[in-house]
Design a protein that fits this description.
This protein is of the alpha+beta class and about 550 residues long. Helices cover about 55% and strands about 15% of the residues. The chain has 17 helices and 11 strands. The strands form 2 sheets. Strands 1, 2, 3, 4, 5, 6 and 7 form a 7-stranded mixed β-sheet that branches. Strands 9-10-8-11 form a 4-stranded antiparallel β-sheet. The model has no long low-confidence stretch (mean pLDDT about 95).
């Protein structure tokens, strides 16, 4: 699996297309860097770039962009709504895949040191890379902004982490660090800047100060006015969307606006957003409004509508959701993305992978989808109208399981490949033999974990399958019979794959517990499938 870091440098230029494009090209021309998004703001006079690559490549890409900005941006002439202290105001590094937060801290340190040495500018470390608690948050470092730097840099407590304690008028200062994925989310108001800022103060975690904290944890906020759009915004940064979600920020802003008799007219995402943040909002609105929306594409459309994400410009999920822009498996096409014929041919090729584990996962994913189809062929039809609420409860587990099981097709092949790589490790010295043994044992545990996850997922489907068998549209009886029997077959596949990989694991306690669990799941599957088939046979037309 490829190692990916995301870099999101914010440059203090949002109007000159020549400068914006020159910085874009500096990133694009850096080997190994993929530019995903360029988000400009004329009123904020700021452009946010998003690109990804290997750790060493994104550091080079950020430096190339900074070199270009150093030639073209002069902070002495800069004016804009967004707080800022430098031409390259902030440059965070974010782990995306196969990279730890510690590695992103190293990226920030390497970038900051090289930037300071090459351009002779002051650089501060923030976020996870901060060297002191007082510099952990960006607003703390940026307090007073560019205009305060001449005096600030004279103070010992504000000596930069890299570079001179001297004011560079054309540049200012730069903050770089490592952090989780930040979502820049702005809510549009037909109001004044002051009213928007009042709402921001009520919501942001910092509030109005120590004695007046705001309501929303891990949220930064400010109010500003966009002249080019003729509206105000509550501009927020969600530092951890798992703590405070997109929809929470939006709904709380709406409550505040209602108290002030102010209309909310949509919202705006700046840069990219994780898929899960959108899907969490979809779940919220589906539950709030008692909606039945299954497909990912439709759930995203629901969120775009409810949050008004397309109010200022079109919101194209394929260009704004990071998972849609960054492939999961690097340059190689995943098994599940291949045409069915190509997958079947690959299974039949003279190669050990994909093998029984991937085939079992693909099979049960289709079986879960078949049960989902049977439910949907019942839902929404006039003669089965009385079953709509029941189908709304029974269908989602199969839809969700199909996605989880599909992912196991590639996971199983990768686990097998990892085992093979571990077995190829050198074993000439005692140290090498110890490393190889540990790697092999870890590889075998992963090879057990995938089919065991398959078995657990199938086991979770028996209760809804039993209920579905009692009321499903009988035109789909044979479909549900196929799904039930094939799920049992998939359980057998999981059982055999667990057994073969358990054989060489040295931890006897782990082996005994896993064997007991998979054997129990297999026995339960035999009982459950018989009940499902009996119930379907007993029903009359």
């Amino acid at each position: 699996m490829s190692r990916l870091v995301e870099c999101v440098p914010n440059f203090s230029e949002g109007n000159s297309q020549e400068v914006i494009e020159a910085i874009s090209q500096a990133v694009v021309r850096t080997p190994g860097c993929v530019l995903l998004d360029v988000d400009t703001g004329p009123s904020t006079n700021r452009t946010v770039y998003t690109f990804v690559g290997r750790p060493e490549d994104v550091v080079d890409g950020a430096l190339n962009a900074a070199r270009t900005a150093f030639r073209l941006i002069d902070m002495r002439r800069h004016k804009g709504e967004h707080p800022r202290m430098g031409a390259l105001d902030v440059c965070p590094f974010i782990p995306v895949r196969g990279v730890s937060m510690e590695e992103c801290v190293l990226c920030a340190q390497a970038f900051g040191q090289r930037l300071a040495e090459e351009l002779g500018v002051p650089v501060y470390l923030y976020g996870e890379a901060a060297q002191m608690a007082s510099r952990r948050t960006l607003p703390a470092i940026r307090a007073g902004e560019y205009e305060a730097l001449p005096e600030k840099l004279k103070q010992a407590e504000w000596a930069p982490d890299f570079g001179p304690s001297a004011f560079v008028p054309s540049w200012g200062a730069t903050a770089t660090g490592a952090r989780k994925f930040l979502i820049a989310f702005n809510i549009n108001l037909l109001s004044t800047k002051e009213q928007a800022h009042r709402i921001a103060l009520n919501l942001r975690e910092q509030g109005r100060g120590t004695n007046q904290p705001g309501r929303l944890k891990k949220v930064q906020g400010i109010g500003w006015y966009l002249e080019e759009k003729n509206l105000a915004q509550v501009s927020t940064n969600l530092l951890d969307f798992e703590v405070t979600a997109l929809h929470t920020v939006y709904e709380e802003t709406c409550k505040e606006a209602k108290e002030l008799s102010l209309p909310v007219v949509g919202s705006q995402l700046v840069g990219l957003v994780p898929l899960q943040a959108i899907l969490d909002a979809a779940t919220f609105y589906c539950e709030k409004e008692n909606l039945f929306v299954l497909e990912e594409e439709q759930r995203i459309r629901l969120v775009v509508n409810r949050l008004g994400l397309d109010s200022l410009s079109p919101f194209n999920p394929k260009e704004r959701i990071i998972e849609y822009l960054v492939p999961n498996n690097g340059p190689e096409q995943s098994l599940v993305d291949k045409p069915l014929c190509a997958f079947v041919r690959e299974v039949g090729a003279r190669s050990a992978a994909p093998g029984g584990g991937s085939v079992a996962a693909a099979s049960v994913a289709m079986d879960a989808s078949l049960a989902c189809m049977a439910g949907l062929m019942t839902y929404g039809r006039r003669q089965f109208e009385h079953l709509d609420a029941t189908m709304q409860r029974l269908i989602p587990p199969f839809h969700s399981a199909a996605a989880q099981l599909t992912a196991l097709v590639d996971r199983d092949a990768r686990a097998f490949a990892a085992c093979l790589e571990a077995m190829k490790l050198p074993r000439s010295t005692p140290e090498e033999r110890d490393r190889r043994s540990a790697a092999v044992q870890e590889g075998l545990r992963q090879a057990v974990a995938v089919p065991l996850a398959l078995a657990e997922t199938v086991a979770s489907l028996w209760p809804p399958l039993q209920k579905l068998a009692l009321c499903v549209n009988l035109a789909c009886r044979s479909d549900l019979q196929v799904a039930a029997k094939a799920l049992e077959t998939g359980m057998f596949g999981a059982y055999f794959n667990v057994l073969i990989n358990l054989r060489d694991i040295s931890d006897d306690k782990f082996k005994d517990q896993t064997l007991q669990r998979i054997s129990g799941l297999l026995q339960e599957a035999k009982t459950q499938v018989a009940l499902v088939l009996d119930r379907l046979e007993e029903r009359q037309e």
